[in-house]
Design goal:
It is a single chain. With 462 residues, this protein is mostly helical. It is built from 19 helices and no strands. It is globular.
Length: 462
C-alpha cells in the first residue's frame, strides 16, 4: 500500500463529519491528555502512601462500582435534562474529585473520592455518545465512534508518557493537572458545543405516553438489546482480565514490572497507530460478523497468554486482543445505536455502560482470585472459552436484529419490539456508550493498573 493510498484513506476516514463532532473530539482529546489519576493511582497508593497492592486494587474496583450507578444516572439526565448540561456538570464533578485526591490522604477518604469519580466519569458517557448520534448521519455513526475512541487512546498515550516524565513533580501535582484538563474540557463543551437533544415531535397520544414511560426497566425488556448488553458484558470481562492477570502472570514467570509496562503499552501504540486503518477495513461490514470476530480475537489473544514465556510473546498476545478491541468498541456502539429509539438514547447508553462498569468491578477481583488460587493458566483458559461463547452468541442471537441489508438500513423510525432476541427491530439509529478505556499502564510494582471504567474506559481519567 503506497503512501498516497494511505493518505487518501486517512482523508476519507476523517472527512464528511460536522464541525460540532470535531469540537467534541477535541474535548475528548484534551480530557484524556490530562488523565493522570487512574494511570498513576496505584503507584500513588502503594509507593507514596504505603498502602498494600490489595487496597490499591480495591480502590480501582470501587471506581468501576461507581460507574454502575453513574451510567444509568447519566442516561436519565441525558434524556431529561439535555446533553450539554449533563456533560458539563459531570466533567466538573470529575474535576472536583481529581482535585480532592491531591489533598485527601486517609484510606476511607480516597476510597470515597474514587467511588464518586467513577460515578461522574461514567455518567458523562451517555451524553457524549448521544451527541455524536444526534449530529452525525446514521451511515457515519460507526466511523465517528471509532474516531472518538482513537482520540481517547491518543490522549491516554500522551498522558502516560507525559505523566511518567512529570512524575518528579509529585503525584498530587499530576492530579491537579488532571482536574485542570477536565475543567478545560467542560469549557470547550459549554462554549462550542450546542445542545443536540431532539425536540419532542407532536405524536399521537398513545405514542407520547409511551415515550414518557420509558425507564431503565423498559430498556431491559427490549430482548435484542438485552442480549447485546449481556454479550458485551462477557466480552468486557475478557477485555478487563489482562489488566490484572497479565502483570501477575508475567511476575510469576520472573519478568520485571518494567517489562509489563512495555508490553501493555503496546495496546495504546497499536490503537493510536492503526485504529483509523482498522476502521477503514471494517467499514460497511456486517456488525454481527465484526462482533463475533472481535470476540474470537479477544478469546484467542487472552487465551494465548497461557502459552507465552517472554516479553515478546506476551506483547504478541496483546496485539491480538487489541485488534479485537479496535473492532469491538465502535461496532458495539453502532449496534446499540441501531437498536435504541431516539427518545430513549440516553437510557439505552446508560444500560450499555453498566456492562462495562460491572466488568470493571468484577473482573479485577475474579482475575486476582483465580491467579492466586487455581493459577494463571485457568484464568486464560476461562477467557478463551468466554470469548468463543460470546462469538457464538452474537452469531446466533443477533443476526436478525442487527441485519444491515439495503432495505432495512434505510428504515427510519420506531418499529415494534419483539420478545425474541433474534427477531428484527428497526429503529432510529442512536448512540451507544463508549467504554472507558483505561490508561496505558506504566511500569509499576503493584499489578493493579487497569483499563476500564470508558473497564471503558473502556477500558481512566475523567
Amino acid at each position: 500500500m503506497s503512501i498516497s493510498t494511505l493518505r487518501r484513506s486517512a482523508r476519507e476516514t476523517v472527512s464528511g463529519l460536522p464541525p460540532g463532532f470535531w469540537w467534541l473530539w477535541l474535548s475528548t482529546l484534551v480530557n484524556r491528555t490530562g488523565a493522570f489519576v487512574l494511570t498513576f493511582l496505584s503507584l500513588y497508593l502503594t509507593l507514596e502512601l504505603g498502602h498494600s497492592a490489595w487496597f490499591a486494587g480495591l480502590v480501582v474496583a470501587l471506581h468501576g462500582l461507581g460507574g454502575v450507578a453513574g451510567s444509568p444516572l447519566g442516561g436519565v439526565l441525558t434524556d431529561r435534562w439535555g446533553r450539554r448540561p449533563t456533560m458539563v456538570t459531570m466533567h466538573l464533578a470529575g474535576a472536583a474529585c481529581a482535585a480532592a485526591l491531591a489533598v485527601v490522604t486517609s484510606a476511607w477518604g480516597i476510597a470515597v473520592v474514587v467511588l464518586l469519580m467513577g460515578v461522574a466519569m461514567q455518567a458523562v458517557r451517555p451524553p457524549i455518545n448521544a451527541t455524536i448520534a444526534d449530529m452525525v448521519p446514521a451511515h457515519d455513526v460507526r466511523r465517528a465512534y471509532a474516531l472518538n475512541y482513537w482520540a481517547l487512546n491518543l490522549g491516554f498515550a500522551v498522558a502516560a508518557i507525559g505523566g511518567g516524565a512529570a512524575a518528579f513533580l509529585g503525584y498530587r501535582t499530576l492530579f491537579v493537572v488532571d482536574a485542570a484538563a477536565t475543567v478545560l474540557c467542560a469549557v470547550i463543551v459549554f462554549l462550542r458545543l450546542p445542545e443536540t437533544r431532539p425536540e419532542r415531535q407532536p405524536r399521537e397520544e398513545g405514542n407520547s405516553a409511551a415515550e414518557e414511560k420509558v425507564s431503565t426497566l423498559t430498556v431491559l425488556r427490549d430482548a435484542p438489546f438485552r442480549t447485546l448488553v449481556l454479550l458485551n458484558l462477557l466480552v468486557c470481562l475478557v477485555f478487563t482480565a489482562p489488566w490484572i492477570g497479565l502483570p501477575l502472570t508475567m511476575a510469576d514467570q520472573g519478568l520485571s514490572p518494567s517489562s509489563y509496562g512495555v508490553v501493555i503499552a503496546v495496546n495504546g501504540v497499536v490503537i493510536v497507530g492503526f485504529q483509523l486503518l482498522v476502521n477503514k477495513l471494517t467499514d460497511k461490514r456486517s456488525p454481527v460478523l465484526l462482533l463475533a470476530l472481535s470476540s474470537l480475537l479477544f478469546g484467542l489473544g487472552t487465551g494465548a497468554t497461557a502459552l507465552a514465556g517472554s516479553s515478546v510473546a506476551f506483547a504478541a498476545t496483546v496485539v491480538v486482543w487489541t485488534v479485537g478491541e479496535m473492532i469491538h468498541v465502535p461496532t458495539n456502539a453502532a449496534a446499540t445505536a441501531r437498536l435504541a429509539p431516539e427518545h430513549a438514547r440516553g437510557r439505552y447508553q446508560g444500560v450499555m455502560g453498566i456492562s462495562w462498569s460491572v466488568a470493571g468491578f468484577v473482573a479485577p477481583i475474579l482475575a486476582g482470585a483465580i491467579v492466586d488460587g487455581p493459577g494463571p493458566g485457568v484464568l486464560w483458559a476461562a477467557t478463551a472459552v468466554i470469548g468463543v461463547l460470546a462469538a457464538a452468541g452474537y452469531a446466533t442471537r443477533l443476526r436478525k436484529a442487527l441485519a444491515e441489508d439495503t432495505e432495512e438500513a434505510g428504515e427510519v423510525g420506531e418499529a415494534g419490539k419483539t420478545g425474541e432476541a433474534g427477531e428484527t427491530k428497526a429503529v432510529v439509529p442512536a448512540p451507544a456508550p463508549i467504554p472507558v478505556p483505561g490508561p496505558l499502564a506504566s511500569p509499576a510494582p503493584a499489578p493493579v493498573v487497569v483499563k476500564g471504567g470508558d473497564a471503558e474506559d473502556s477500558p481512566v481519567g475523567t
